[in-house]
Write a structure and sequence with these properties.
The chain is mostly helical. β2 and β3 form a beta hairpin. About 15% of the residues are buried.
Length: about 190
């Protein structure tokens, strides 16, 4: 299968809950992550399923999935395997509450939009999180949208000022046909 760059930017029409409902769902997931009260998690999942008018998925909790490589997994029969927050907090590189909640949204995105699941689950995650922060709170930028030169590749001099990274070499273009001859003569 050949990947075409325009396929990645095809907009997907997707209905997500209102900001007020998303905030309540998010609050319930935060409560479950911090206090491990199962009722808060059940409320969040039930509210999401009620909005989409779908049955509640069968969820099983694990210490780790695929030797710690996977955070959650959704199966074709509607079963979802998730890493419990107690186990998420220890032994992981990305062990934040926000990452766990976004993983829940991602797996629910798989459950809701099973066709073309991976792309739609990522879009669903982004749209569920959009607009949740209050205006006064600092919004975290996703890693893919950071400004260049602000990450680990940005070199600094002894004085602490940025040094421009070495420019990448461009590949030489090989031209054939009539236009190649015209440019060579000019």
């Amino acid at each position: 299968m050949i990947f075409h760059p325009k396929e990645a930017i095809i907009p997907v029409r997707m209905i997500v809950p209102s900001v007020a409902l998303r905030r309540t769902i998010d609050r319930n997931l935060e409560t479950f992550f911090r206090e491990h009260r199962m009722i808060a998690f059940n409320r969040a999942i039930s509210q999401l399923c009620r909005f989409y008018n779908i049955r509640r998925p069968k969820i099983e909790w694990y210490e780790y999935i695929d030797w710690g490589k996977t955070a959650g997994k959704t199966y074709e029969d509607g079963q979802i395997h998730l890493v419990h927050p107690e186990n998420w907090k220890r032994g992981r590189i990305y062990n934040s509450e926000r990452m766990w909640i976004q993983m829940i949204y991602h797996e629910m995105g798989h459950f809701v939009f099973w066709t073309d699941a991976e792309r739609k689950a990522d879009v669903f995650t982004r749209r569920m999180v959009r607009g949740l922060r209050q205006r006064g709170e600092r919004a975290a930028r996703p890693a893919s949208r950071r400004k260049s030169g602000s990450g680990r590749h940005a070199a600094r001099s002894a004085a602490g000022k940025r040094i421009a990274a070495s420019p990448r070499r461009k590949k030489a273009r090989v031209q054939t046909g009539r236009r190649a001859g015209k440019r060579a003569r000019a």
